[in-house]
Design goal:
It contains 11 helices and 15 strands. By secondary structure, the protein is α/β, with parallel strands linked by helices. The protein is globular.
Length: 369
């Protein structure tokens, strides 16, 4: 029998959702958890019977028994902790976004290439049942030639932890950008983005970003395709939506307007609402149930990422399985460091463009060494 991978989870808010998935995955041991809040650390450790508990990240990554680290820390820590873990010889999975600057993305790519460990940005949008359904249409040839794509992520972040307040909308654009790029197997080449409206002065002061909404038009590299992405975070009335639309010559897919509805597939001009199937059969049997249930299901125990967003479309066990499989199969994860950097920098460059009143900004090219 092959050795199971010892997993450590860092950050136990949203991160707690992944504990039972790693615990039940046939190729992993849920070995250690890490959080600065010692009371919460002990409570979660006791609940899931996890013996190794760290309140110090640097101590955790120097535990030689740990094979891989799954980082769910606040976004300003993503780059610092990813780089440190890679340098310590750990495989790294990190929640989105990869980093908060182009320079940090470059540093993560460099650390991954120098130390030869897997890096995967845990992008939920490319493992949802909706994405898997449209990907299946594409792979069967039912879509035909893709002609245009549109993504949107609109969310009200009031009440979230303080580091979210005033965040530039496109700094957290990967949920809207990634499914479009994954379906086309392309990267973003350049962007023109406009900001619209304004948020309160006390929010603007946090990051220097005044816009309520940022809307971008991207050109895809080595392609005749363009895509449009809209993002809002504060003071814009809208039910939560994390959507993508794909327009092709045979069939097109449009996300539903309201969460309670079904999406629409168009064949020519004829529309049909479709009930999206679950894709748990893609997973090892012990973790299949986690496409429809998890830690934050009960009304008494819910995380903000679940009260908004319907639990990310059943993506969490698919993310875990892709990360673990990539390590065991000695291949790149999807998305790997290069792809994660392009998806993240698409949004960072879009905000730069918005601050320059729509000036075209090129996305850096990240290459394998």
């Amino acid at each position: 029998m092959r050795k199971k991978l010892n997993i450590a989870i860092v950050g136990l808010g949203f991160g707690a959702e992944f504990i039972p998935i790693y615990r039940d995955h046939p190729d992993t041991e849920m070995y250690a958890i890490c959080q600065r809040n010692k009371k919460n650390l002990q409570s979660i450790g006791d609940h899931f019977d996890i013996k190794m508990r760290y309140s110090n990240f640097d101590e955790l990554i120097h535990d030689d028994n740990i094979d891989a680290v799954h980082i769910n820390s606040p976004i300003h820590l993503h780059a610092e902790q990813s780089i440190a873990a890679l340098k310590a010889g750990k495989h790294v999975a990190c929640t989105v976004p990869m980093a908060t600057s182009i320079e940090e993305c470059q540093q993560i790519v460099k650390a991954q290439q120098q130390h030869g460990k897997n890096y995967m940005m845990m992008e939920t949008a490319v493992q949802t049942r909706e994405f898997l359904y449209v990907k299946e249409l594409r792979d069967k040839g039912e879509l035909g030639r893709i002609q245009f794509l549109r993504g949107a992520h609109q969310q009200e972040m009031a009440g979230w932890p303080g580091y979210w307040e005033g965040l530039p909308p496109m700094h957290y654009a990967t949920h809207a950008v990634s499914p479009l790029l994954a379906l086309t197997d392309k990267e973003v080449e350049y962007v023109s983005c406009l900001g619209s409206g304004n948020i309160a002065d006390h929010l603007t002061a946090k990051y220097g970003s005044p816009f309520a909404v940022e809307s971008a038009l991207f050109r895809l590299r080595d392609s005749n395709l363009a895509m449009e992405v809209t993002r809002s975070l504060f003071e814009t009335s809208r039910e939560y939506v994390e959507s993508f639309d794909v327009y092709a010559d045979k069939k097109s897919f449009e996300w539903q307007q309201l969460e309670a509805e079904d999406p629409v597939v168009f064949t020519g001009e004829k529309p049909k609402r479709v009930n999206i199937p679950d894709y748990a059969h893609f997973l090892p049997e012990p973790i299949q149930r986690y496409t429809t249930e998890g830690v934050y299901d009960s009304e008494e125990n819910q995380h903000l990422s679940f009260t908004q967003g319907s639990g990310h479309g059943g993506s969490h066990p698919h993310l875990v399985h892709e990360f673990i499989s990539s390590i065991l199969e000695e291949r790149d994860a999807f998305p790997n460091a290069l792809t994660s950097a392009n998806w993240t920098c698409a949004g960072l460059c879009a905000h730069e463009s918005a601050m320059k009143n729509g000036e075209i900004v090129k996305i850096p090219i990240f290459k394998s060494q």
